[in-house]
């Protein structure tokens, strides 16, 4: 009878032999024959003569295509396994490149299976040469690309859906943008008016806005502004600002009072974690029968000054005193200034998308206020439509440098017809 000590000793010996046994088993796994590795490789192998006749094919590829070895070896050419389109590509591109380069890799083709189905594959071929450098055979490796094709198809589908969604978003943004602008400016007797809105990106709704509308007793109100930010939140503020300005002007047309009302509304509505503000300039237009032309009273809430181009060819900014951002403080400092628009004069209101456009010249790569002033001086005397046309052309020269929406509104007092002809 075996003793306990003998058993323990036997167990110890068994444990000592265990790593050796594992190494032996591991070695046995690596003792596959070269033929077995060829036949059952995870990819297809194919050897053809130089004319494309199949000389050898492994079991993996036969299984994929559903052929017996005798169906292919010595009976078919590699090109006969391809679809019509693949065969054309093989003859016009694949084979010529292979002959020139001696190798070609990663070509996407489709093979025809015995049952008529198609197998998407990635093909790599090399030319085997003899000791004298002459080509002997063509060796081809074929990888199953069904999963890859499915992935590419899904990726294409997702991209198409994304493109469609982007198109829908662009249409929605364009439609929404149009609702934030007046369909047409009011017709003011004795005044020519023109406006333009330059959209920097159709993928986001901008916050620029403008309007010109009649008030009581032969007066007209006009405004132009820019809400901070973009997107739906900015559009909501834009809509609120437009209708508040119109309503406030009916209640009290004094420009300072109009902006004070807008400031109160925005400060009350957006005083939480998402404050919203805007810059805006509001004007009150009244005819001046005694001197001819119009008198305009302007109030600005942190907005760029209007550019006044006179009939005598001079131009300068029409600065407004004070002018704090609208909606930031509960009691913004707003003051007004008045000027007479004589026949031949043109007043241009603009948002900062124009002066902050990127360009190769100007201060720090921006177009800048000085450049716009020089632009106005070169343009004067001018008309509303000519001014807007020139601004459109100017924005066009900036290309993608205009990274913010730009709104411009021009008013012009025409000269008497006799003077215009002269």
Walk me through what this model shows.
The protein is α+β, with helices and mostly antiparallel strands. It has helices at 4-29, 34-39, 59-65, 69-72, 84-101, 146-179, 231-251, 255-269, 352-355, 368-379, 384-398, 417-421; strands spanning 44-48, 54-57, 103-112, 118-129, 135-144, 192-198, 208-215, 219-227, 278-287, 294-301, 306-309, 315-318, 336-341, 346-350, 406-412. The strands form three sheets. The protein has a five-stranded antiparallel sheet, sandwiched between helices. It has a five-stranded antiparallel sheet with strand order 6-15-14-11-12. A five-stranded antiparallel sheet has the order 7-8-9-10-13. Strand 3 and strand 4 form a beta hairpin. Helix 7 (231-251) packs across helix 8. The model is unreliable at 1-15 (pLDDT under 50).
Structural class: alpha+beta
The 3D shape can be described as elongated
How large is the radius of gyration? 40 Å
How are strands sequenced across the largest beta sheet?
Answer: 2-1-5-4-3
For the biggest sheet, the summary is: 5 strands, antiparallel
Number of helices: 12
Q: Distance between termini?
A: 136 Å
User: How many distinct beta strands?
Assistant: 15
Report mean pLDDT, rounded to a whole number.
85
H/E series, N to C? Answer: HHEEHHHEEEHEEEHHEEEEEEHHHEH
Residues in helices, as a percent range = 25-40%
Question: Low-confidence stretches at least 5 residues in length (pLDDT < 50)?
Answer: 1-15
**Portion in strands:** 25-35%
């Amino acid at each position: 009878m075996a003793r306990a000590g003998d058993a323990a000793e036997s167990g110890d010996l068994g444990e000592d032999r265990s790593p050796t046994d594992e190494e032996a088993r591991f070695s046995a796994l690596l003792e596959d024959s070269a033929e077995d590795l060829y036949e059952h490789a995870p990819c297809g192998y194919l050897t053809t003569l130089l004319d494309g006749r199949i000389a050898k094919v492994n079991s993996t590829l036969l299984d994929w295509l559903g052929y017996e070895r005798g169906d292919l070896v010595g009976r078919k050419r590699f090109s006969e396994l391809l679809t019509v389109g693949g065969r054309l590509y093989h003859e016009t591109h694949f084979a010529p490149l292979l002959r020139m380069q001696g190798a070609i890799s990663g070509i996407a083709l489709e093979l025809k299976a015995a049952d008529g189905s198609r197998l998407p594959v990635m093909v790599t071929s090399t030319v085997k040469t003899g000791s004298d450098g002459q080509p002997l055979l063509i060796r081809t490796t074929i990888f199953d690309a069904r999963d890859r094709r499915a992935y590419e198809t899904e990726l294409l589908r997702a991209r198409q859906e994304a493109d469609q969604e982007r198109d829908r978003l662009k249409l929605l943004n364009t439609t929404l943008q149009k609702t934030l602008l007046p369909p047409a400016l009011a017709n003011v007797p004795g005044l020519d008016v023109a406006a333009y809105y330059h959209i920097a990106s159709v993928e986001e709704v901008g916050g620029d806005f403008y309007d010109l509308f009649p008030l009581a007793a032969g007066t007209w109100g006009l405004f132009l502004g820019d809400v901070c930010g973009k997107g739906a939140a900015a559009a909501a503020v834009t809509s609120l600002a437009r209708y508040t300005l119109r309503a406030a002007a009916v209640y009290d047309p004094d420009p300072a009072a109009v902006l004070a009302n807008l400031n109160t509304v925005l400060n009350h509505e957006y005083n939480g974690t998402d404050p919203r503000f805007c810059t805006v300039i509001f004007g009150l237009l009244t005819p001046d029968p005694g001197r001819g032309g119009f008198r305009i009273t302007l109030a600005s809430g942190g907005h760029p000054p209007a550019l006044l181009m006179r009939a005598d060819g001079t131009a300068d900014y029409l600065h407004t005193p004070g002018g704090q951002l609208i909606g930031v403080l509960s009691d913004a400092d707003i003051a007004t200034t008045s000027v007479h628009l004589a026949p031949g004069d043109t007043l241009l209101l603009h948002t900062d998308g124009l002066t902050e456009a990127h360009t190769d010249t100007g201060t720090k790569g921006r177009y800048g206020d000085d450049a716009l002033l020089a632009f106005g001086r070169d343009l004067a005397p001018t008309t509303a439509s000519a001014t807007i046309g020139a601004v459109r052309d100017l924005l066009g020269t900036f290309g993608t440098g205009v990274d913010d929406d730009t709104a411009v509104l021009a008013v012009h007092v025409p000269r008497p017809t006799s003077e215009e002809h002269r």
